[in-house]
Design goal:
By secondary structure, this protein is mostly helical. It contains 12 helices and 6 strands. α2 runs antiparallel to α9, α4 packs across α5 and α9 packs across α10. Its main location: membrane.
């Protein structure tokens, strides 16, 4: 094996350059503004991403009605995004100091965690798209498979697959000397050609092939929905699945918008002249911003997530004074037997009268029919 080396200009798929983190000697004039701007943007992205994904995780784990198969996949995506955000402080510090101050072990750990969560994110989106396909195209046949227990097993398989995919990162990530005499967190490749191969490898497995599979799923969904048209029994189902499918599609679209510039820069850096380092850093930040954008999308598109988020931040009165879960006491069985007078009243006035009324009496207390829990 030849002497280990590393390649100029190539980019690690999670944002860490393969050679010196940035060739800072070539743009010393930009050092002062970039030293302040880049870490500040990193800090903002990290705060938004950690807070938003923590809320998603809490909501799904807290409320029983959120534990659907689709939301279990979203939970897995939120966990991946949350862990993805944990590497941002290390990158921000490295960008501010212009070198890697955390040592060899942390270098390998940060890059490995960063890599496994990056691949887990796109694999989760692929699984979500397949879930949407089977839910819309094969609603009856897929009922036995679209269960939370099955979703958890699939999530575990996704993490295992991501671990296998990032084995090159675990093996070759290490600290390397930079041109200015410092230390950078990078890859130590046996051959220079391994760098180009790794960039193509991550582009295919981490972007192109999953996006093609996702597009195929949605094309089949569109074809199926057009074929069934307004047949009996499908109209209501189309309405119920429409919002969920739209949310997943929007999340996928934002992922492509956030990650495509990064992969383009990565390929250009390998096969042509590397772009401006500041532009490169901004595209890296854009890729990280995708993890913070997902919870925002859930809040805007999904009624359940929006109401649950409102409950977390105590805005229970936002939706015309109605809380997240609306409870109709007329439809709820009382735990203890009503007094004889109430039984006589119930015999005289059927249930439909109660349902038509805006108020009921419960345990002798006057309250609204639709009451906040």
């Amino acid at each position: 094996m030849s002497e280990p080396n590393w390649t100029e200009g190539a980019l690690f798929p999670t944002g860490e350059p393969l050679n010196s983190t940035l060739d800072y000697e070539d743009f010393e004039a930009e050092r002062s503004p970039s030293t302040i701007l880049i870490p500040s943007i990193y800090a903002l992205v990290c705060c938004v991403g950690l807070t938003g994904n923590a809320m998603v995780i809490y909501v799904i784990l807290k409320y029983a009605k959120m534990k659907t198969a689709t939301n279990i996949y979203i939970l897995n995506l939120a966990i991946a995004d949350e862990l993805f955000m944990l590497s941002v402080p290390f990158l921000a510090t490295s960008a501010a100091l212009r070198h890697w101050p955390f040592g060899s072990l942390m270098c390998r750990l940060v890059l490995s965690v960063d890599g496994i969560n990056m691949f887990t994110s796109i694999f989760c989106l692929t699984v979500l798209s397949v879930d949407r396909y089977v839910a819309v195209v094969h609603p009856i046949k897929s009922a036995r498979y679209r269960r939370p227990s099955v979703a958890k097993i699939i999530n575990a398989c996704v993490w295992g697959l991501s671990l296998v995919v990032i084995l090159p990162i675990i093996v070759f990530a290490d600290t390397v000397p930079s041109r200015d005499g410092g230390v950078d967190c990078n890859f130590l490749w046996p051959e220079s050609s391994w760098s180009e191969a790794f960039v193509v490898y991550t582009f295919l497995l981490g972007f192109l092939l999953p996006v093609v599979a996702i597009c195929l799923c949605y094309c089949l969904i569109v074809v199926r929905l057009r074929a069934v048209g307004l047949k009996a029994g499908w109209l209501q189902r189309r309405r119920s699945e429409k919002k969920i499918t739209r949310m997943v599609l929007l999340v996928v679209a934002v992922f492509v918008v956030c990650w495509m510039p990064f992969y383009i820069v990565q390929l250009v850096s390998v096969f042509r002249r590397p772009p401006d380092p500041m532009v490169t850093q901004l595209f890296v930040i854009l890729s990280y911003a995708n993890s913070g954008a997902n919870p925002i999308l859930y809040g805007f598109v999904s009624d359940n997530f929006r109401r649950s988020f409102q409950r977390i931040v105590c805005f229970r009165w936002l939706e015309s004074g109605v809380d997240v879960e609306q409870v109709d006491y007329c439809a709820m069985p009382l735990k203890r037997r009503a007094p004889p007078l109430a039984d006589d009243h119930a015999r005289r006035f059927p249930l439909k009268e109660c349902l038509a009324s805006d108020t009921v009496y419960r345990n002798g207390t006057y309250t609204s029919r639709i009451t906040a829990l």
